[in-house]
Input
Amino acid sequence: MAKKGGSRHLKRLASPEFWPILRKESKWIVKPSPGPHPLNRSIPLLVLIRDVLRIVENSREAKRLIYDGEITVDGKVRRNYKFPVGIMDVVAIPKSDIYVRIVPYIVKYLWYIDIPREEVSLKLVRIENKVLVKGDKLQLNLNDGRNIVVDRADAARYKTLDSLLIEVPSQRIVEHIPLELNKLAIVIDGRNTGRIGRIVGIQERPGMKRRRFLITLEEPGGHRFNTILDYVMVIGADRPLIKVSDRV
Output
C-alpha cells in the first residue's frame, strides 16, 4: 500500500533557494514541520539559528539551545527545532540579547533584521479571510495561521488583506491598517519581494479572484512599479508602524 501524507525528509538540493545552506555538503536538511507557514515560505528554527543568525556552529548546539527553551517565537518558547519561522515572526534569545524579525528581503526573499527590544511583543499580520462563528462573532483568519475573534459589529471595518498590528502572544489588536490608496506597503512575494512603496494605484483587470487587481507602488525616490494584490502587505500610513526593513 502507498504511504499517506508527505515525506518527513527533505534533500538539500530540493530545499527553498533562499535558505543559506551548502547544497552539496550533505544529502539531507531539516524539513519544517507543519505549522503557521508553508515550507516554501519559511525557515526551520534550526536552520535559522545555525545558518542564518550563525550563533551556533552545528546542529547539535542548535538543538541544545532550542531544547533548553532559550528561544521564543512571537513570545512563545519553541522547543521544536523544525518549527517553521516565516514573514513578520519575531525571534528572541533574551540571554544573548538577540531580537530579530523575519521580513521580506530583496533578492534573499526572507531574511532577518535586528529590532529594538520594545518591539519584541509587536507583530504585523494580514487578514486572509473572515468568517462568522458562534456567539454572533467574527473570526479573522490571519496569514500566520492565527485567528482573532471580534464583535460582528466590526465586520464592515475589517476587510480582507487589511493589516493588523497585534501584541504577541496575547493577540490584542493595537492598530488596524486598511489596504487603500496612500498607505505604505511592502511586497511579500514575487520578483519585487522586499520593496516598499506607497500605494498610488489599484486597478482591476480581467482574471480570477484577487489576482485581477494590479497594485502600483511608488518608492521614496519616485520610481513606480506594479505587483498583484496577493503580494502586498500594508505596513502603515506615513511610516511603518514597526521596523520591517533596514532601508526605511
